[in-house]
Amino acid sequence: MLTFIGLGLYDERSVTVEGREALRAADRVFAEFYTSKLVGAGVDELAAHHGVEVEVRAREGVERDPEPILAAAAEGDVAFCTAGDTMISTTHTDLRLRAEERGIETRVIHGVTAQSAASSLTGLQNYRFGKATTLPFPYAHGGDDVPESVIETIEANRERGLHSVVYLDIKVGTGPSGPDPDHEEYMTADVAAGLLAEGWRDELAVVVARAGSPDPVVVADRLGALADREFGDPLHLLVIPGDLHHVEADALAGFAGAPADLVGE
What we know:
Layout (H helix, E strand, L loop, with lengths): L1 E5 L10 H9 L2 E4 L11 H8 L3 E3 L2 H5 L3 H9 L2 E5 L7 H12 L4 E4 L4 H9 L10 E3 L12 H12 L4 E5 L1 E6 L2 E9 L2 H11 L4 E6 L7 E6 H4 L9 E5 L5 H11 L9
Parallel strand pairs: 1-4, 1-5, 2-3, 2-4, 6-7
Antiparallel strand pairs: 7-12, 8-9, 10-11, 10-12
């Protein structure tokens, strides 16, 4: 049995009760934290809280060499854990398909996603979000501006009146000069807002910082204004609103302090 467990958004306690029970009952526990990570807890805290040994796999250890995970799951109960919801990444879908092809039973225990949390915290309705995009560090795409693909995604959503989630780049194990096992870097919302204000337009945006933590931050303003503020520890993301329903406009004003002239009030 191979059980995919979403750990939620923040720390060792963010997992669902069902996920916690499956995690603690597993014979072996694998985890990856390159697609996202729990910023409120490290691997040691996760392992100690649940009384398990956690075997962390690098990207290559999941994508190119999944055999240790699959072999263990063929012989016993294995938990494969990630931050957020475990099936957001196509890498994990591929791993599940490989297991099914070998006759290994699989199941999925979901966790809260950053996108669902962003909808809940901002008051923007989940069904009115379009395609999400990721804003990379400039050095990661070989330029010094916003990739055209990011702008195209935002513009396409806005043409349909839809909101856009902009995930912000995480670099673990690689930096500006190439592979670096000690490198951890998180794009912050102020940096992202500055890039978009310059490379796109100075429009209304919403910062969501530390969703799932005891002290989430939600702030709405023009990108240029957000670029001049600090939002504390990661993880951060941006939401670029599309057309606003009057309840959504009220929510951005009430929950995120959006200026009245930006939400039509």
